[in-house]
């Protein structure tokens, strides 16, 4: 019997989504009669220790994953479960994304106390978000909004809606749904109004690239459509050298679970103040090619200059 150690951040969301993923892995291992058992190992990351500063100011990619990847490479854990959108484009050598489980809702969600949608919010409404991507797109859609910084775990952010007297906050629908807090969502934001972050709603289950036993287990949990959509989005992210410090979004879907199904994607790069929002779309059966075409079209439209400005 091999004991598989599963590393995860300690936030309520990370623990919940890791627990849910682990339950499925255990069931799949049982069904296949694999001689495995599992143990959860909570790990504190740099991102968790600096929740009091604006993440976009801290800089550095992979704030939430680095320590966990080190534990994988050091053999202290065998599997790591991350939110895909926290994953930098490049993995350390020796590590692999073993699978992408079925994706949760990729959209952003609006939470407020009056059930307002983006259109109904009052003029000058104060909106809480610390995401440059959300701020830029909301400001473009509603230049009258006043965007206020909002940091912390989901429960902290929900509390701040009231304690800071905000008119609304914007969160990933996926996090709220995984926590069972769907009832707090007052409106889903159409990706046309606010394109989600690359990988939003998806998980990345990471392991050592040499650990065949774990790779075989993880393959059982892979969702082909989600994995191919995320591959297109991450190719786009890699080519634009994005991270959470820049206003970049992308959303891809695969037409079916077939390994050659058409993948369609829209990508977005914005000026931080929303004064300019560039978008491009492409589709095809090679996810990397789709991601590359969208990135190249946006670079042709001047995405480079917007990103350089946002990074200053
Ligand atoms: N930025 C932090 C983060 N990373 C992953 C999620 C949850 C949603 C997901 O898995 O995509 C969140 C919270 C949020 O953006 O509201």
Automatic annotation (TrEMBL):
Q: Which residues form the Porphobilinogen deaminase N-terminal domain?
A: 4-215
Report one GO cellular component. cytoplasm
The cofactors named for this UniProt entry are: dipyrromethane
Transferase as a keyword of this entry, yes or no, is yes
Matching Pfam families: Porphobil_deam (PF01379), Porphobil_deamC (PF03900)
Name the SUPFAM superfamilies on file: Periplasmic binding protein-like II, Porphobilinogen deaminase (hydroxymethylbilane synthase), C-terminal domain
Task: Please cite one Gene Ontology biological process associated with this protein.
Answer: protoporphyrinogen IX biosynthetic process
Q: What else is known?
A: The porphobilinogen subunits are added to the dipyrromethane group.
Family the UniProt entry places it in: Belongs to the HMBS family.
Q: What does this protein do?
A: Tetrapolymerization of the monopyrrole PBG into the hydroxymethylbilane pre-uroporphyrinogen in several discrete steps.
> What name is this protein filed under?
Porphobilinogen deaminase
Species for this entry: Cohnella rhizosphaerae
């Amino acid at each position: 019997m091999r004991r598989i150690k599963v590393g995860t951040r300690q936030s309520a969301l990370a623990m919940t989504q890791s627990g849910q993923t682990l339950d499925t892995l255990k069931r799949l291992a049982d069904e296949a009669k694999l001689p495995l058992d599992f143990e959860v190992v909570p790990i504190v990351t740099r991102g968790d220790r600096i929740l009091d500063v604006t993440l976009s100011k801290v800089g550095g990619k992979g704030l939430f994953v680095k320590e966990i990847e080190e534990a994988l490479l050091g053999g202290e854990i065998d599997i790591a479960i991350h939110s895909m959108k926290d994953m930098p484009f490049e993995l350390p050598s020796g590590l692999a994304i073993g699978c992408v489980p079925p994706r949760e809702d990729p959209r952003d969600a609006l939470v407020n106390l009056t059930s307002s949608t983006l259109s109904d919010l009052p003029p000058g409404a104060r909106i809480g978000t610390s995401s440059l991507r959300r701020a830029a797109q909301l400001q473009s859609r509603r230049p009258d909004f006043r965007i206020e910084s909002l940091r912390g775990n989901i429960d902290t952010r929900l509390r701040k809606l009231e304690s800071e007297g905000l008119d609304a906050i914007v969160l990933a629908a996926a996090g709220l749904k995984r926590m069972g807090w769907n009832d707090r969502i007052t409106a889903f934001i159409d990706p046309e109004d606010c394109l989600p972050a690359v990988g939003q709603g998806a998980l990345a289950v990471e392991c050592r690239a040499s650990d065949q036993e774990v790779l075989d287990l993880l393959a059982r949990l892979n969702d082909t459509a989600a994995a191919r959509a995320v591959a297109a989005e991450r190719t786009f992210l890699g080519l634009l050298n994005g991270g959470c410090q820049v206003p970049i979004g992308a959303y891809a879907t695969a037409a079916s679970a077939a390994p050659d199904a058409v993948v369609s994607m829209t990508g977005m790069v914005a000026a931080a103040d929303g004064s300019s929002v560039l978008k491009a779309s492409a589709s095809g059966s090679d996810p990397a090619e789709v991601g590359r075409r969208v990135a190249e079209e946006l670079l042709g439209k001047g995405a480079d200059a917007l990103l350089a400005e946002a990074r200053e």
